[in-house]
Amino acid sequence: MSEVVLINITGKDRKGLDAKFTGILAEYNVNILDIGQAVIHEHISLGILAEIPDSKHFSSIFKDMLYEGHNMGLSVDINTVDPENYEAWVHAQGKERRIITLLGRTLTAQQITAVASIIAQNNLNIDNITRLTGRISLVKPQDNPRASVQLSVSGKPVDIRDMRKKFMEISQNAGIDISFHVDNIYRKNRKLVVFDMDSTLIQAEVIDELAKIAGVGEQVSKITESAMRGEIDFKESFRKRVALLKGIKQEELEKISKNLPLTDGADLVTKTLKGLGYKLGILSGGFTFVGNYLKDRLDFDYVFANELDVKDGVVTGEVVGEIVDGEKKASLLRELAQRENIALEQTIAVGDGANDLPMISIAGLGVAFNAKPVVRQKASNTISSVGLDGLLYLIGIHEREIKQEVRQNSEFFHG
């Protein structure tokens, strides 16, 4: 008669450890039902759930494992598993799973316990925790530190809306970003990322910068702020603002593009995503003359924005063609997904304003970046504590993979 046992091995890690212990089990034709391992600061925790085909071998396996553990200075704990408990564990598979990502400049025990408490209150189980950022030196601090861990949780939340609300409160009070989304087949198979442009890819609202040149900065700024808060219709506000730009010379447009500051992390996130094979798009309520400049600079595949009407080298105060508003952004995202022959669940959308909510809400992963309060409240995933490259951690990319892509891109361009 067979017997199921749970083996836990802990202590200082060393090469060949796994081979030693699984080798002992192999001598008795043991079947491995589950296995997991974590190494933190050169100390290992190895767990093995195993079926011993012949229960009479249990004592021999127990003795051999303890002996090897003693020789290697490791703690070995072996316990039998009740058959009913084992079957209950088997039938528990298939539970809802979610990924919760914590992201900030640093992570503290207080921040993690706050999140873990909310998880426990919702009867969810933390199955796995993975550090996504690199090791931190206490002697030579990083200039631009990042700290991120990813939690894999299982179970059905008691109240998912309340859970998200509490995560947002923790995020605001503790100064960290918390991403919370379903773990499914699409999570690791995303193919297309679209970004808003103004105040997302660049640290400016271009229409406000043009308004300063035209001498109508204060008037336009007030309309912009109201529109981004969702207080007035975007198309109406956009036509009003563009009308105030009448008379700007075309050479001013070309000059302003080259002087707009990129958002922190924009260059890194686009280079890394392109290196990993993602298609990138700009869906903006801003202007094509800036979008096309960024397309060339950051290697985007698509740009959709508004085209200023220019005649005889002067801005007329009108727009050519259909205005790109929130609903148009969502429509364009659907079109691009269809063009790339992928499901919407395989897309990612990033933006900061109310007019970004339609595309954020339909994307497989929608992210509010440095967003207005109304947008943060409606988005499940936010980035506010770090730069735009924080998106890479929300996707689940480890820092070593980011550095590898940057290195390969550098070799490609300079080799």
Q: Could you give the topology of this structure?
A:
Blueprint: E1 3-12, H1 17-27, E2 31-40, E3 43-52, H2 58-72, E4 75-80, H3 83-91, E5 97-104, H4 109-121, E6 125-131, E7 147-154, H5 160-174, E8 177-182, E9 192-195, H6 206-214, H7 217-228, H8 234-243, H9 250-259, H10 266-275, E10 279-287, H11 288-298, E11 302-311, E12 314-320, H12 326-339, E13 347-351, H13 357-362, E14 365-369, H14 373-378, E15 381-383, H15 390-395, H16 399-414
**CATH class descriptor of the largest domain:** Alpha Beta
Query: What's the CATH architecture of the largest domain?
Result: 3-Layer(aba) Sandwich
* Total beta strand runs: 15
What structural class is derived from the secondary structure elements? alpha/beta
Counting DSSP H or I runs of 4 or more residues, the number of helices is: 16
The value of Rg in angstroms is 27 Å
Principal-axis shape equals: elongated
**Sheet having the most strands:** 7 strands, mixed
Structure notes:
- The protein is an alpha/beta fold and 415 residues long.
- It folds into 3 domains: 3-91, Alpha-Beta Plaits, CATH 3.30.70; 97-182, Alpha-Beta Plaits, CATH 3.30.70.260; 192-204 and 259-414, Rossmann fold, CATH 3.40.50.
- 42% of the residues lie in helices and 26% in strands.
- It contains 16 helices and 15 strands.
- The chain has helices at 17-27, 58-72, 83-91, 109-121, 160-174, 206-214, 217-228, 234-243, 250-259, 266-275, 288-298, 326-339, 357-362, 373-378, 390-395, 399-414; strands at 3-12, 31-40, 43-52, 75-80, 97-104, 125-131, 147-154, 177-182, 192-195, 279-287, 302-311, 314-320, 347-351, 365-369, 381-383.
- It has a 7-stranded mixed sheet with strand order 12-11-10-9-13-14-15, with helices on both faces.
- Helix 1 packs antiparallel against helix 2 (58-72), helix 4 (109-121) runs antiparallel to helix 5 (160-174) and helix 7 (217-228) packs antiparallel against helix 8 (234-243).
- Mean pLDDT is 91; it is low at 411-415.
